[in-house]
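Below is how a single chain appears once it has passed through the pipeline. First comes the sequence as given, then the structure the pipeline wrote out for it. We keep one example in the README because the format questions we get most often are answered faster by looking than by reading.
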Amino acid sequence: NFLDSEPGVTKKRYLWGWLCLMRAGYDHRNEKDNRVKKLTLFYCMIVSCMFSELKSQSFHWELDEAKGYEVPIGIGAWEEIASGDYYPEMEKYYAEYDIDMEAIREIDDVKIADLELSGLAVDIYFGAWCGDSKELLPHFLKITENSTLLEKVNMTYIGCDRNKKAGDIDIAGANIEFVPTFLFKKNGVEVGRIVESPSETLELDILRILKNIE
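Resulting structure:
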């Protein structure tokens, strides 16, 4: 689908850039060719609709009967995750986590050619009903906020139910057995994943994955 067609590239930036190019073309030909003007405006309308659709994408919420609160399902933004009844617990994990700055400096020293164009992305599969997800997502967020490299990487949050389903989003190809799963991709191809809990620490596991990217 469209979300996977340009993995790792921020879709909003991509579409907005295309829109700007179309508008520039319109300005250049403005008084010269009425037919080109109409065609350009038509493409601008299409891109604007696509941009609006991406911008409006959000989770839907389902009641987790065992927990007694609603959890986000599907694809959405961190701001939506932060609106749930469970979020005070996540805030606590965020505040208490001491990041490994030495490891983050090593992460930032990893050389990945043309990072913004390399198609590097992280799909984050989580369950707001899951204790590990509520602990590790804030840790991962805090790490990315302190890394100049990771802040350039496109992050997609995918909320799952207890059956590891994401509503209308087909995630069968990701083979998610446990949450959280941090799935690192380059150009749509998996290059590594962290499942449920890190083998060492989140920082060192991320560093290991990035160093192995060609």
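The helical segments are 2-5, 11-29, 34-56, 78-81, 87-96, 101-109, 131-145, 202-211.

See the next section for the split statistics.
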